[in-house]
Amino acid sequence: MARVPLLQLSDISLTFGGDPVFDNLSLVVQPGDRVALVGRNGSGKSTLMKVMGGLVEPDRGEVVPGPGVSVGYMEQDPDMTGFSTLGDFAIHGLEASDLYKVERAGEGLKFDPARPVETASGGERRRAALARLMAEAPDLMLLDEPTNHLDIEAIAWLEAELRATRAGFVLISHDRAFLRELTRATLWIDRGMVRRQEKGFEAFEAWRDTVWEEEDTARHKLNRKIKAEARWAVEGISARRKRNMGRVRALQDLRAERAAQIKRQGAAAMALESGPKSGRKVLEVKGISKSFDGTTILSPFSLKVQRGDRIAFVGPNGVGKTTLLKMLIGEVAPDTGSVSMGTNLELAVFDQTRSKLDPDASLWDSLTGDPEMRVSGKADQVMVRGTPKHVVGYLKEFLFDEAQARSPVRSLSGGEKARLLLAKIMARPSNLLVLDEPTNDLDVETLDLLQDLLGQYDGTVLLVSHDRDFLDRVAVTTIAMEGDGKATVYAGGWSDYQSQRAPRADAVVQVTTKKTVPASKPKQSPKVGLSFTEKHRLEALPAEIERLEAEMAKLQELLSDPDLYSREPVKFKKATEALVERQAKLEAAEEEWLHLEEKAEA
User: Fold this and answer.
1) Residue 370 banded pLDDT, cuts 50, 70, 90
2) Structural domains in the chain plus CATH codes
């Protein structure tokens, strides 16, 4: 029996006064679909999602939900006019029996329902909108960057909720780990065309590269054919005195076909140039601490940062990561202790609040009005790493077109604002780069480029991010802030930190698709329905699980030494590999125990 689609778009065309955003677009979302919607910043992802949600009317075509299907859209900038608190907004329109769902979502997403709307930040408003959508539980959820402004714990909660839901969803996100975990199909918007692949985001980049290679091959063949036909058209006149008008028209058609091909948007021409080398010691931190209103943000903490380090700061929202970062660079004074900065430092800061961008200024003025970029006597030029450049030319390097140069910053998307801020900080050499949530809203290609630039950067990087994939690719040291003022140093990125951290008694167990064994030692069970060998194996497994857990605890204790990596790198490598090996064996033993237990009970 054929399934009734959740949503069907037929022959959709849409323009905003210029080139079409979409033309003759048709697509279907089926029940149970878990779709990644991907594409470059500005390609139309959010616009398409708004068309799907009925918030933007297409110029032509139909958007038809299935019979009785409810469609919910997570607003990036929700209108809360008329609501006193975030909770009032989140529960609006819900049945009394569903109000507990908002409270539950609020706990998972970490937003305060009692927060007055007028004092709520943009991130808090978005979390309230997401909680409202999760409580409404529509048949089809349209989620536009739901992980922005969420910390890693809240992302894990949302991941578990979406993994468990029976609803369909379409998901836009810059978080590659989130997309890989959840999606089973991919919609790719590229130059006004929407392609679909029945594989999740994990397979996207290989698919994209294959499509582009095929395009390049076809374009090369077309160019050779045009060249051959053009040579015939010229040389054949003198030989025959008469043109074959059919072939001339065919040549004109080939040239029209080439002209109609839309050139792919290139990658941003971003570049990071290190300034003069800093001293070997970049920062020396001795016993710094910080409290606000009686709450300890940071207990006495010490750290040495050397030239070339890539240090990531992780932890829940509000735990104090940005405060610690500001203490390290001298913007906030510690209550106790000292921060000693090295010699010859040239600092560049990427601020997560984008406070260096005036929303009412144009892109042109944002660059030319910056004292560090201004070129004396040249109103249309900016200084870029010691060389004057025309302001429009420099904007084009970051994928802005000439028409945007005089537009206000407030008209930009989140990804475009991030690129503009990167343009400002990359315009001058630096040797200490501070990046506070740089990955929000950036597309996959720009994230890849930023990661490559950081890998080649000769200076030192201090990074705050909730993007687990980006942390794994960039960081060589992770400082975890988990509350109560404690900051712990771990070698490696996010995954390394997860493998090294000691289990916490109060930790919330993340929901996964895999069954888990209780933390306590498995109990003996009746042996009904098992073979002789299986009975003995079931009896032996609890001791084996206990032994593996003990070995892992010893390895985790060894790896918790923050100096082990620099002092004994070979020992660190072997201990890490041993921990990964025992983790795999433990998971296999737990799965086997569960299987035999279920078989015995059956």
Assistant:
1) confident
2) 7-206 (3.40.50.300), 281-499 (3.40.50.300), 514-601 (1.10.287.380)
pLDDT at 169 over 50: yes
Average pLDDT of the chain? 83
Chain centre to alpha carbon of residue 92: 30
Please state, in angstroms and rounded to a whole number, the distance separating the CA atoms of residues 28 and 431: 50
Q: How many CB atoms lie within 10 A of CB 329?
A: 16
Rounded-to-integer distance, Cα 13 and Cα 60, Å: 5
Distances, alpha carbon 577 to alpha carbons 495, 545, 559, 572, 588, in Å: 13, 19, 11, 9, 17
Whole-model pTM: value is 0.70
Q: Are 467 and 156 in contact (CB under 8 A)?
A: no
Distance CA 149, CA 127 (A): 8
CA distance 107 to 104: 5
In this structure, what DSSP letter does residue 295 have? E
Q: Would you say 404 and 362 are in contact if contact means Cβ atoms under 8 Å apart?
A: no
Q: Are 564 and 544 in contact (CB under 8 A)?
A: no
Q: What is the reported pLDDT for 236?
A: 56
**What confidence score (pLDDT) does residue 284 get?**
95
Q: How far is CA 133 from CA 115, 150, 157, 401, in A?
A: 18, 16, 15, 36
